[in-house]
Amino acid sequence: MSEGIIIGVDLAKNVFQLHGARRDGRVLFRKKLTRAQFRVFCEGHPKCLMAMEACSTSHYWARELQAMGHDVRLLPPLYVKPFVKRNKNDAADAEAITEAALRPSMSFVAPKSADQQAATMMMRTRDQLLEQRTATVNALRGHLAEFGIIAPVGIKNVSKLRSILANASDIPTLVTEMAKLHFDRIDSLSCEIEALAAKINNHCRESDTAKRLRSMPGIGPIAAMVIEAFAPDMAHFEKGRDFAAWLGLVPKQHSSGGKIRLGQTSKMGQRDIRRVLITGAMSRIAGYARQNSRAEPWLQDKLDRKPKMVAAIALANKMARQIWAMITKEEKYLPRAVAT
Question: What are the contacts of 35-41 at 24+ separation with CB within 8 A?
Answer without folding.
Answer: 38/9, 39/64
